[in-house]
Batch of 3 targets.
Target 1
Amino acid sequence: QVQLVESGGGLVQAGGSLRLSCAASGSIQAISVMGWYRQAPGKQRALVADITSGGSTNYADSVKGRFTISRDNVKNMVYMQMNSLKPEDTGVYYCTVQQIFGSRYWGQGTQVTVSS
């Protein structure tokens, strides 16, 4: 089992920045990929960005060049720096991890609201 706790969401004006953080605990030794998904109002949860244990990253096209994902394997943390935020970035952001044998875990989510 892995427990995830997110922080860093909030209300920001368009063009502003936020930094999301996620702390992992539990069976952390088996974590392979860490990432962030977003669920916008009325839409399905979708990948924003993820990062492997080796540091390879993957971003949704809509956030490339604006968001940066990073992880600290010693502290068992994953972060996402979000710059040049747009109203369409609004949603609940979920931290997620996938273990080497395939199990996936989710945090409780943190709300990000970008006003125009």
Note: The two ends are 40 Å apart (CA to CA).
Target 2
Amino acid sequence: QVQLTESGGAQVQTGESLRLSCTVSGRAVSTYAVGWFRQAPGKEREFVGQVNWNGDRTVYSDSVKGRFTISRDNDKNTVFLQMDNLAPEDTAVYYCAGRRGVEYDSWGQGTQVTVSS
């Protein structure tokens, strides 16, 4: 397993942008796919998107497609979630998670994103 730490959460206004970072440490970091998830108050955790081990493939949920972009820098062991045109419904705790198999088995502690109207 690897250890993941999110950062960059903040309170912003509708329409603004924010970039979250996920720093990954441990063995064979660059072999892990990394996903972003979010959980709003009173709601279940939701898949946001993921990037494969070398960064050349990404997948996004329909709710963020076209607004959010995931990238990774394996030299810095960091995965980024660029969020543009934020809306109040994007308010949530954002988590990054790592996997080498089918299931995500390593999770960060989360970072709060609040979007005010």
Note: The first strand starts at residue 2 and ends at 7.
Target 3
Amino acid sequence: VQLVESGGGSVQDGGSLRLSCKASGMILSVFTSDTLGWYRQAPGKERELVATITGGVGRIEQDSVKGRFTISRENTRRTIYLQMNSLKPEDTAVYYCHSASHQLWGQGIQVTVSS
């Protein structure tokens, strides 16, 4: 099983990005019931939990992104998403996908927001 993130990049302050994380090789029934999450790590800071989704219930864990970020999943594609709107320079970080069932991390993807 592998988690592969995509969709990162560089945007201006106020811009939007949608991150995707595909769980390659994961059995569909496991994926459907798995708790998947997005974490991020900014330079010089610890990795922090941004959002999780279990079944169809998504939860934003970081107060600083509430109202701007949304987590969702598409089970048939074994993919979760993180829609990020109204991005700010402080959102700049490497974003990681995580699977609770496999205790597995993706390779991480860079998001850079410039002012």
Note: The longest strand covers residues 17-24.
